[in-house]
Amino acid sequence: MMFKRVFLIAVISIACLLGVAQESALRVIPTPKQWVRNGWQRHPRQEVRYDSAGRHLRFPQNRDEYYLRTESGSVTIEGNRHWAMATLAQLTDAQGRLPDVEIHDWAEYPFRGFMHDVGRNFQSLGLLKETLDLMAFYKINRFHWHLTDYPAWRIECRCFPQLNDPQFQRPGRDCGKFYTYDEIRELIAYARERGIMVVPEIDMPGHSAYFTAAFGFAMDSEEGMAVIERLIDEFCAEIPDTLCPYLHIGSDEVHVADPEGFMTFTERMARKHHRQPVAWDPGLPSAPSTIRQVWNTAAVSNAQAASKGGRFIDSFMGYLNYYDPIYFTNKLFLHKACNQDTPDTTTALGGILCLWNDVRVDEKQNIALHNGMVNGMMAYAERFWNGGSGTWEQLAGFEKTMAFHRDSLLADHDIRWVANAQTVWNIRIDSATILTARGGALDLDALCAGHDLSRDTAMAEATTLLFAVRDTVIRAWVGFETPARSNRISSGIGQQDEWENRGRLWVNGKEILPPGPWQEPGRYAYRFHTWGKTQEEEPFTDEQLYWMREPAYIPLRAGWNTVKMLVPKQFKGQRWGFAFLPLTVGEDGRVRETLISDH
Predict the structure, then answer these.
(1) Domains identified in the chain and CATH numbers
(2) Which end of the chain is more exposed for a tag (fewer CB within 10 A), N or C?
(3) Coil vs helix vs strand at 152
């Protein structure tokens, strides 16, 4: 009897392991809702046949629905070709072979967007096209193009060419650079070929220092509104509503004498040109028919905004540039899309993932690297395609698919991310409150807020355990502070032989110091918000961001190892957090997960 029980447990265990292996083998992001794999053999990819009959489609109103079948290398597609082809690209291995699969999938939300701010830091058409390619690969179908901000108007202007004149723009911020109407149409066409709609944003009347510099009066003045009307007329004549049916009118972070009157004016301008207006919320009061893009990250405010009526877009998961990118990838996966357990698109249209860079960027490829754009996009695509929210256990499984994409499908990208969902910390706050948390990178401000703890200054002691099968030395990214790339407020780079933020790290009681000398010890310590100040013009360097710099060497002994970190919060407004991420650095310099345990 005992033998039978042991045998049965063994069979169940093996079946579960095989099930997990089979489940993870598809490695498609977003995860398809329905799929069957017919065997494990792969075949050379052959012709792709599109079946317009749509026999397998169930939701005729869902333009994102598709059906994909591969058999002996032949491919049949029904429904949305763009997303079926994106899935097909992810299924195709390096030898051009396909498994035999049958997939039926659809999106829960019609609006799955990504935003770049090119007003503060201009990006070439080539870089933007690379972003669009990545969006299409992950079925993200709206490109929110933030074209104007404090430094500059990035749209060709024929009626008022002074808007393109460098003398009226912020010095050092890509002065004189803008997109011609031909280039704007080119990017829109490139996006449409990939199933992506461009949503241009002309921020009115906020974030418009360039406007006042060029004209000598503000946007919300009578003279300013007359100028805006001509600007919008010109833009919409060059970019017809058939190309861009939406117009984002901005409206946030500004105080004007007549907010209702100004919003009525801008909304009327959008509708005059047959555009659906979109506006930020919080922002100036918009009409019920205007789509609100909710950006406040306060949970109570978000719940109120999501339930106050009218259509809205979820950007209240936060911004890529604000958080530690490893932490934020987890946050995106765990986020509850549109604050809904079950997707309902009556008013909730979906979401937009935003990437702002208030701080000047010289090397524009650093925008993606310094903000974890690629790994953030993977988690975001999963969440807003499938809706609801994820669990830590689901995240641990999803990380395997992310690692496969990083290592195999996106090998040409430099992706600074490693799996970390299984790490568990015990955290003591000020030697009193003990909390537990998961993830290799943590936001201690958010953790304390979730437990109704408020701290302007504090000390956190965080401990975790690592198991090694033998004595070894591994590498690890170690960080004691992550400054937001929208603001330079931080304790700066550490002094020589010290970590930033005066943090300290011990492994098995032995203190671990930074792996090498700092190039700029003690630099960039700004205990104040730098918006609009000269410090905002100092680009971030790799040394200031732990995921961009040389990892530390961590000696481990066979068995369990104790990792302890001391993380001070030195001043009010500091981004309080830390990271400890074991990794392997290959000969090519790329990072991978470290396999230090078999428990």
Answers:
(1) 24-105 (3.30.379.10), 111-390 (3.20.20.80), 424-593 (2.60.120)
(2) N
(3) strand
